[in-house]
Specification:
It is a single chain. The protein is an all-alpha fold. Helix content is about 75%, strand content about 0%.
Length: about 325
């Protein structure tokens, strides 16, 4: 007897879960530092153009393949045409390569969450904190990145064990709206910092002197990373999608949600980074890197009223966003 395949209970559940897969560290951590590195508004414009053309086309094709075949990535390509079965194996190999790297960053998020929960948010806002942590220059097992990496991997295993409806869909329904609201609040506060308007102009206004092939490549790489494309994920989610869902509407909502969160993350981090750099956008552009979020946001929280509480909630939500992507 053929086992009935489970599915998402509603279109909203599918959209939030698929958006949860797309929305994660790629938006909150990677997008802001790439935007700062590749020219702010110039990178933003290139990314949006790619998202509404190239990204939309690939996402709708992958979800359609999954919904039609009701199979995993490997099985879906083989079902369409046996000659393309190798593509399924290649696409499935990408998450295998990315996941350990992703879990390392997820471990960093848990570390910062632990710092704010324990009331040491001010120490986490120090200039040397992030470098000393990832450089394993702090004493103790709990100050070693490998410890937090292991904790993050175990959290992923727990959520996955609960399955599609009770695990992935339930978590996504609760945390995604809260993440949006809190991100908007932090963005508004960041824009009130002295010197933040210079960062806002840098982030939103394109400057053609910043445009280069590297800008396109950076935006394209971010597109695939952030939207979970060409790695079998959207095919897998599509295989659990109900047949009566309107595909174009769902993909549009996922893309709007994903790109919107990325833009809000940039508003949280880039203006604040410019403000704390004395208004020097060239300095931010030259020093932007993986530590941008972990360096800028703790400083923002440290300057806010009730910053410890807000920082705790924020890093908890970032952790949940990261989990919905990595699971």
């Amino acid at each position: 007897m053929k086992k009935e395949r489970s599915s998402f209970t509603s279109r909203l559940g599918f959209v939030l879960a698929a958006a949860g897969s797309a929305v994660g560290l790629g938006n909150l951590w990677r997008f802001p530092y790439l935007a700062a590195k590749y020219g702010g508004g110039t990178f933003l414009l290139v990314y949006i153009i790619l998202a509404i053309t190239f990204g939309f086309t690939i996402m709708i094709a992958e979800i359609a393949i999954g919904r039609k075949t009701r199979l995993s990535c490997i099985g879906a390509y083989q079902a369409l045409d046996k000659r393309f079965g190798l593509l399924g194996w290649l696409a499935s190999l990408v998450p295998v390569i990315i996941t350990p790297y992703y879990c390392v960053i997820g471990g960093w998020v848990i570390k910062y969450l632990a710092e704010f929960v324990s009331g040491r948010g001010a120490e986490a806002a120090g200039d040397a904190f992030f470098g000393e942590f990832i450089g394993v220059q702090m004493p103790g097992v709990l100050n070693t990145p490998v410890t937090w990496f292991i904790i993050y991997v175990l959290l992923n295993a727990v959520v996955v064990l609960f399955g599609v409806e009770k695990g992935i869909e339930k978590v996504s329904r609760i945390m995604m709206p809260i993440l949006v609201i809190l991100s908007i609040i932090i963005s508004v506060y960041s824009l009130t910092l002295p010197g933040a308007m210079g960062g806002l102009k840098f982030y939103l206004l394109p400057r053609w002197e910043d445009f280069s092939v590297l800008t396109i490549l950076g935006a394209m790489g971010q597109l695939f990373y952030s939207m979970s494309l060409a790695m079998g994920i959207m095919i897998t989610y599509g295989s659990y999608m109900q047949k009566d869902n309107i595909l174009e509407h769902s993909v549009t909502q996922i893309e709007v949600f994903d790109t919107g969160i990325a833009m809000i993350a940039g508003l949280m981090i880039i203006p604040a980074t410019v403000a704390f750099s004395g208004g020097d956008t060239t300095l931010v552009q030259s020093t932007a890197g993986p530590g941008l979020m972990f360096g800028a946001l703790p400083k923002v929280f440290d300057s806010m009223a009730f910053g410890g509480v807000i920082g705790t909630i924020f890093f908890l939500l970032v952790l949940l966003a990261a989990l919905t992507s990595s699971i």
